[in-house]
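Late entry, evening session. Most of the bench is empty. Finally got around to the prediction I had been postponing all week. Sequence below, unchanged from the version circulated by S.P.
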Amino acid sequence: MHIHHIIPTHVTGGVANNHPDNLIALSVEEHAEMHKQRWLMERDWQDEIAWLTLTKQITLEEANRLSARNGNLNIPKTESAKKAMAKAQTGRIHSEASKQKRREASLRLKLKPPVPSGPRSPEIKAKISSTLKGRVPWNKGLVKE
């Protein structure tokens, strides 16, 4: 059994709400489904990584790498941090193969379609709703102890 936060820790700014009303015991499959559904509805990258990890679609190492990458996106850097990063690269010699790999990686990031954010259109809501029709709710039959 896994303990799942109903209101995820990443929503509360990294502070875990371990109150019993916010915790629920789930099987691994149910836990993965909860994160998948939340990712489909909210588009939180943390839920996508949790779902992919719980269903063994990615390794824990890949999950940590993605978390580090996504967690550092859009975080403004101070001028001193920018200078320190530039200084660390000063005088560093990169091979042509290394430069080519960096160009390709940069291009892949630029070509990656953005994840939709903000309110969902009625068409998207209808599509999500139609995919969920007929499924048994994850919490059906659970009893609070």
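Two things to note before I forget:
The chain has one domain: 2-132.
The chain has a mean pLDDT of 81.
Will write this up properly tomorrow.
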